[in-house]
Amino acid sequence: MKQGCLHLYYGDGKGKTTAAVGLCVRACGAGLRCGFLQFLKGRPTAERAPLETLGVWVLAPATGPRFWFEMDEAEKQVCRNVSAAALQEAAARMADLDLLVLDEVLDAEELGILPAGLLQEIVQKRPEALELVLTGHSCPEQLAASAHYITRFLAEKHPYDKGLDARRGIEY
Question: What percentage of the chain's residues is helix, strand, coil (to nearest 5)?
Fold first, then answer.
């Protein structure tokens, strides 16, 4: 590819990570070199092993088993440090990839987990041919302005509403 595009998958609906995984699978099938970095995933997710089997570089830094809002300040600082280091590692690998997914990076940025401006800087400095996918709940204006694809996931109905917990292989 001569021109890589920026994708934003955002919203409160299910399917952002699933869509990004699907794009990785498709890209691998076309012989592209792919990377997949997950933020804020405290427990192992079922997509990691299959992606690795396909040859995708996968990084899911251990940020602890609790959600951000459940962490104390010391745990939050560890999460900040680990997340920033992981994003820097992904940025260092961009030149060797055709597709890079930064899963839940929009949430990590919105929560102040990543250093201010780091994501925007990485987006701006990415190699011209790199396809870059960012997922999360929000769609920041400064990123939307430079995005080629913006897909909003809207929850109209979800089992969580009826008290059904997340299920391995479906939600994670």
Answer: 40, 15, 40
CA–CA separation, 122 and 91 (whole Å) = 7
Angle at 147 between CA 82 and CA 130, to 5 degrees: 65
- Rg of the chain (C-alpha set): 16
In terms of DSSP H, where are the helices of the chain? 16-29, 48-53, 73-93, 105-110, 118-125, 141-144
105 and 96 Cβ atoms separated by less than 8 Å: no
Over pLDDT 70: what percentage of the chain? 99
134 contacts: CB under 8 Å, gap ≥ 6: 6, 7, 8, 9, 102, 105, 106, 119, 123, 143
Q: Which amino acid is at 43?
A: R
pTM exceeds 0.85 for this model: yes
Determine the pLDDT at residue 130. 98
Decide if 104 contacts 40 (C-beta within 8 A). Answer: yes
Q: Pairing between strand 34-38 and 57-59?
A: parallel
Alpha carbons 141 and 30: distance in angstroms, whole number: 32
Phi, psi of 14 (to 5 degrees): -75, 145
